[in-house]
Amino acid sequence: MDWLHRFFRNFFPGGRGEFLDDSLRELLASSPNARDVRLVLRYAKLGVIIGIVGMLVYCAAVSIAARSLTALLATLGVCFLLGGASFLIGGLLGFLFGIPRSRQDEAAAAAPGGAAPAGAPPSYRSNTNLEQISDWLTKILVGVGLTQLANVPELMGQLTRSLGTAIGPTPAVGGTFGTLTAVFFGVLGFLAWYLVTRLHLLRSFTLAEQVAREVNLLTNVRIDDRAVRERAGDMLSEAVDRIRAVPLAQLQSPEDFAAWAKAQNLAGQYTDAALGYAQALAQAPRNREWAIEATFNSLYEPPPDGFVRAIQHGLDFLQRLGDDARIHMYIAAAYGQKHRWNQEQGAPQDIVQQDRAKSLEHARKAVQLDPSTKLVLRELWDPSSPGKDPAENDLERFYGDPEFTALLGP
User: What pLDDT was estimated at residue 349?
Assistant: First the structure.
């Protein structure tokens, strides 16, 4: 029976096996109810073992009475399918009854008029269809069950007779054993999954909602808004720290990569942010906002890679997605960085002049598309701009240039 012991040890949670034990340990690592969940699963495992032993004993008795190996295999197959189906049906019902209820609707109803405050940024909330379905099904099941209580004895009798013809040796014995097996595994599955859902899923949903709020918070922050970057509140800082702590290899969706990249950008980790934006755009290459943020982020990477990447991002955006004032503004700043770099490296004068011409070209296009970009470009250009960050000097090499003065001057 050593093979049977190894089977139970490796493929039922709560033991010392190498398969479900490791994944279960990771799943429950952050849950304060981990001990309770493990206890429930341990008793569920014990119940399954008891049920399987009972079925093996019954099938052996049927085989001995019928003196047939075929009878043993047929009865064993039916019993295992009956027990497994009952366990799954009971587990599904336990899961439906145990799904925690979201407080989103209550919070919305508590707001004056049930609406978001005026001027609030757009936000998203988790899909609660499963919760609503669970609520409807549980009410329907309870309601139908109460109205059919009088018919329960007749329905149980029909089940007993049907099972009796399937698992013998006589209809009475087979029906009784089949009914007890179905009830045993059904109740076991219901209790096990109801308790696991109540003990662990509530915390998982709560953590998911918290992360969703933090991602939504980052989604509504414009990373090129310096005032936000400088005066980020405690809530934003905590959200940034939590999202930055997630390893890049664990992310999957483009939204996850973009939120992770934005968090890295807000923390000043521009090279890491570039990796996140690259992953997000690889899955969603036509997302304009992420492409704009990736271009802006590249301006803060070390030269020459930073301005080279910013120019590449920007020109690729213009070719694929069309004009955008911010993209032209960032390209102008990138060519300003390139102009300074080439001058410091002693590049030929014609290359330096090409950088100046490209920067002026894109600055003009940005102001043409959106006159408000002139204020940002002027700050990058004018070293005496009030409240200027000394590091924001991408266009200062052109200060006093007649054409730049005509475009960005008072």
Answer: 93
What ranges in 370-399 are assigned the alpha helix state H?
Answer: 373-381
Reply yes or no on whether the pLDDT at 1 is more than 70: no
Mean pLDDT of 243-251: 84
Which of 143, 179, 148 minimizes the C-alpha distance to 161?
179
310 or 263: whose pLDDT is higher?
310
Work out the pLDDT band at 216, boundaries 50, 70, 90.
low
pTM here? 0.49
Contacts of 25 (CB under 8 A, 6+ apart): none
- Encoded tokens for 3: 């093979």
Alpha-carbon dihedral sign for residues 12, 14, 17, 19: positive
For 40-49, the pLDDT digits (tens) are 778 888 888 8
**What spatial distance separates the first Cα and last Cα of the chain, rounded to whole Å?**
91
Cα(135)–Cα(120) distance, rounded to whole angstroms?
31
CB 287 within 8 A of CB 281: yes
Burial class (CB in 10 A: 0-12, 13-18, 19+), 98: buried
- CB 140, CB 147: distance < 8 Å: no
Q: Which of 388, 358, 359, 356 is nearest to 375 (CA)?
A: 388
Both tokens assigned to 161: 């007779």
* CA contacts within 13 A on the Cβ side of 46: 6
Query: What CATH number should be reported for the domain whose range is 226-408?
Result: 1.25.40.10
- Report domain extents, the chain: 31-101+128-219, 226-408
Question: pLDDT tier at 203 (50, 70, 90 boundaries)?
Answer: low
The length of the chain, given as a count of residues = 410
